[in-house]
Amino acid sequence: MSNANQSEVDVNGKNVTRVIYGNADSELGSFVQAEEHIWIEKNLENQPCFQFNQLFRDEWSAYLFDPARNVSIQLDLWKQKVLYKSGTSAYSDLYAIRGVSSSPASYLFASFQQFNKWYSSAGEARIGLPAGSTIDLDRVIRDYRARVKQITFELKHLQSDWNRLAVAKSEGVVTAYLKEVITHLLTTESQATELVTVSAEGKVRTIAAESLVEMQTKATDARIVTLNAEIVATQAAQVTARESLRQAQDELKGDKGFLNGFLTGITFTIYNPLQENIDKANTAVSTINQKLQQQKDLSRQLAQTQAVLAETRTLVQQLRSIDVAFRDFLNQLTQTKSSLVAAHTSVVNLSNTSSESLGNWYFQRTDKNMQEIFGWIDSFSSVV
Question: Cα angle at 75 between 17 and 185, to 5 degrees?
Fold first, then answer.
């Protein structure tokens, strides 16, 4: 048995992030990974239709589940099928897979925008970093975003021209669209080359920022240990205060309380044990309330510190993956351009294109590569 997707061995169940589905004649929609464990099904207008939880992946499939409808989906890249089942029924074929992409999920690229917002909202101060310590990374990321916006613009034009090329029949129209497609590919490749250069600087800045965050993490972890110890101490102080309150209350009731009251009446100007026990009780109550509030404040401070630190660490880790992503994108562009040029050279030497239209001839030989590139549009759209 051969793999129907052998030409795209790099895209498999472990790394697929976008699947275009349809029937034999046309596209009908797509499944797109939106977050680490969340997928969205979209229609042809790119509007969300349903949301799925990703259950797991294997070598050739991603398995999704919609709890709201009790619907399971298997994106099977080996069979090139979208499989469907409801409840406990068996899987059945739903759609054919017409294109796949392993471009990084959009939530990773969203870290660009998130980091700029984090920096602008005094993120450094929130985790205790010196002001301006990550300003170079902030600058590089803003440069990233501007360049990615340009690339996204070119990709959308490329996609539009490619779709027109696929249905074109006359040689003159096909040649015109092919020229536009190749022009957009060359422009995008040039922009991607520059982006990879900027990405190299970004990688250095990201590693430096990650080092700062890790140093601050150690200091914060120590602070967290201290906060936890202080919380334990306040809890112990509450126990002591409650015991003092109990003792004071015992002094104020029963025979001893009556005796103290009697003694207070005849020795008021000399000694007042009743008042002493009342004061002791009031002090104990005050101490309990004070320690309770202190515990709440410490717990809130602990939660805030942990949350901000986790947010920052996640951002930096996501940014580190972007350098590799940009290089993959450039490689895919270069491969696709080579594939398209090779197809063009072949068709020039053909006396005819069998029963296929000329546009469809290109589509059949290069569309898988093109769809891999178009998958980056969703990813890049979350950057700007």
Answer: 40
Q: How far apart are CA 191 and CA 154, in angstroms?
A: 9
Buried b (16+ CB within 10 A) or exposed e, 247-286: ebeebbeeeebeebeeeeeeeeeeeebbeebeebbeebee
β-pairing verdict for 27-35 and 71-76: unpaired
Run of H or E residues at 41:
strand 38-43
Token duo for residue 50 = 């349903």
Q: Against a cut of 0.90, is the pTM above it?
A: no
- CA-to-CA distance for 364 and 366, rounded, in angstroms? 6
**Bridge partners of 43?**
29
Distances (CA, A) of 276 to 37, 248, 260, 280: 63, 9, 10, 6
Cβ atoms of 4 and 78 within 8 Å: the answer is: yes
Q: Where are the alpha helices (DSSP H) in 93-170?
A: 106-120, 123-127, 135-167
Sign of the Cα pseudo-torsion (49, 106, 46, 370, in order):
negative
* DSSP state letter for 12: -
- pLDDT tens per residue, range 319-366: 776 766 777 777 777 777 777 776 666 655 544 444 456 667 677 777
Residue 271 pLDDT? 44
Query: What's the token pair of residue 105?
Result: 């999920």
- The candidate with the shortest Cα–Cα distance to 192, out of 60, 295, 335, is 335
Query: Tell me: the pLDDT tens digits for 219-257?
Result: 777 777 777 777 777 777 767 767 776 776 676 665 555
